């Protein structure tokens, strides 16, 4: 009985380590997003950190337009980053979890 419990605890610890490793790897997964006309380009990582913003010179003349472009483009990039992050972390957690009857939160 205690052997089974120790085995499960080890599996849970392994799952936590896999999740942490996946979160660390997400720092290296880059998502590029551009405005529809290509005047604004942003890069974020899968941990939802902004890595770069490239603004075309013609957007610099219109502050309001630039703000709109930033909001739309960053939101698209961050949404994609969230999807990737959630999918990868859930997969890592599910892969490492022990088979405990009734505990199917990652399915």
Please specify the SSE layout and strand pairing.
Layout lengths: L1 H25 L3 E5 L5 E6 L4 E6 L7 H34 L11
Antiparallel strand pairs: 1-2, 2-3
Architecture overview:
This protein is of the alpha+beta class and 107 residues long. The protein contains two helices and three strands; from the N terminus they run H-E-E-E-H. It has helices at 2-26, 63-96; strands at residues 30-34, 40-45, 50-55. It has a three-stranded antiparallel sheet with strand order 1-2-3, with helices on one face. The two termini are 26 Å apart. Its main location: cytoplasm. It comes from Christiangramia flava JLT2011. It is found in: Cytoplasm, Nucleoid. It holds the Pfam family YbaB_DNA_bd.
Estimate the strand proportion.
Answer: 15-25%
Name the helicity range.
Answer: 55-70%
Q: In terms of structural class, how would the helical and strand content be classed?
A: alpha+beta
List the strand order in the largest sheet.
1-2-3
Tally of strands: 3
Distance from N terminus to C terminus (CA atoms, Å) equals 26 Å
Any idea what the CATH superfamily is called? Answer: Nucleoid-associated protein YbaB-like domain
- Name of the CATH architecture: 2-Layer Sandwich
Instruction: Tell me the domain tally.
Output: 1
Number of helices: 2
Q: Which overall shape is indicated by the principal axes computed on the Cα atoms?
A: rod-shaped
Give the low-confidence spans: none
- H and E string: HEEEH
State the name of the first-level CATH class: Alpha Beta
Main pleated-sheet profile: 3 strands, antiparallel
CATH-defined topology: Ybab, Chain: A
What is the averaged pLDDT score? 86
Oligomer: single chain
Radius of gyration computed on alpha carbons:
20 Å
């Amino acid at each position: 009985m205690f052997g089974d419990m120790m085995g499960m605890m080890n599996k849970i610890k392994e799952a936590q380590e896999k999740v942490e490793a996946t979160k660390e790897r997400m720092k290296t997964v880059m998502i590029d997003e551009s405005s529809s006309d290509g005047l604004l380009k942003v890069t974020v990582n899968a941990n939802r950190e902004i890595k770069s913003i490239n603004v075309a010179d013609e957007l610099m003349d219109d502050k309001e337009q630039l703000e709109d472009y930033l909001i739309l483009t960053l939101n698209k990039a961050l949404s994609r980053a969230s999807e990737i992050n959630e999918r990868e972390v859930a997969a890592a957690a599910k892969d490492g979890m022990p088979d405990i009857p009734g505990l199917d939160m990652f399915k």
